[in-house]
Specification:
single chain, 280 residues, mainly alpha, two-stranded antiparallel sheet, 2 strands, globular, disordered C terminus
Length: 280
């Protein structure tokens, strides 16, 4: 009796498929979101581009509990127990091993000068900075991801999302993270070599702890000064993403990034409403 062996599906492909299915589910939920009947509330609803706000707020509160119970205590311990010199080495190393993804997106966006800077930083820091532990290149770092690439290509971000544990996002950013995973050499190294199977997860966990430890006081101050912490984080996330997409260039006088162009007929009484980053 012969046995049939199934081809092993690469984990990066599974990640992209999972993100794609999640996006389809999100779009389906958004299509069911009904805008307010009051004209002024309806305009605000469109401008906010947060048709899943009730669900997003639930996830936001879940994330706050997760942060208070687990992430913040671990990050505070990390910040107190690990000397600043060592934490800087961690930050530099994590930034350096992300360089191939940044370089790919620089090229996809046609940013040849930034791509050259990314390649030069990676080469110099990898060779002379002890695998990136030390930033000796003196070239200012920048970040890119495929969500930003999609924005440069003209794709709208879609509705605002809050993901459990991961935080603020959008359909465009969600697709982008899946593609970034697919093109990341670390992902393929982990898939092809069992000795490195847990490296992507370890990198994600360490990166999250390192990032949180560096923003503990900043987030405390934002929460203290916010009337609506959820709305403040949503606004700050979009401002940051938009700034990243523009590569720090000033915003246009009238910048809009609506997921759907709404016409009057979209809001006929007998129709259901249809459902910013931000720029990835």
């Amino acid at each position: 009796m012969s046995s049939v062996s199934l081809m092993r599906v690469p984990r990066p492909v599974i990640t992209v498929l999972r993100n794609s299915l999640a996006m389809v589910a999100i779009l389906a939920l958004t299509a069911c979101a009904t805008p307010p009947e009051d004209p002024e509330d309806r305009l605000a609803w469109i401008a906010t581009n947060d048709p899943l706000e009730p669900m997003n707020r639930d996830f936001f509160e879940f994330n706050r509990v997760f942060d208070a119970v687990l992430l913040r205590p671990i990050s505070e311990f990390y910040g107190a127990a690990v000397p600043g010199f060592a934490r800087d080495r961690v930050t530099n190393f994590l930034r350096n091993i992300r360089s191939p993804v940044i370089l790919a997106n620089d090229l996809l966006q046609g940013e040849l000068e930034r791509a050259n800077n990314t390649w030069a930083r990676f080469l110099v820091n990898s060779v002379f900075g002890v695998a990136g532990l030390f930033d000796v290149s003196r070239i200012p770092p920048h970040d890119e991801d495929f969500g930003q690439t999609l924005a440069v290509w003209g794709f709208s971000e879609g509705p605002y999302l809050v993901l459990p544990i991961l935080g603020p996002s959008s359909p465009r950013a969600l697709i982008g993270s899946g593609v970034d995973t697919l093109i990341d050499p670390i992902t393929w190294l982990a898939w092809t070599n069992d000795d490195f199977a847990q490296v992507p997860l370890g990198r994600t966990l360490l990166g999250g702890i390192d990032l949180r430890s560096r923003n503990i006081e900043t987030l405390k101050e934002i929460e203290r000064s916010s009337i609506d912490f959820y709305a403040t984080i949503r606004s700050l996330y979009r401002q940051r993403r938009n700034d990243e997409i523009r590569n720090g260039a000033p915003a246009p006088v009238a910048e809009t990034d609506d997921w759907i162009d709404f016409d009057d007929e979209d809001f006929d009484d007998d129709e259901e409403g249809t459902g910013d980053v931000s720029e990835d």
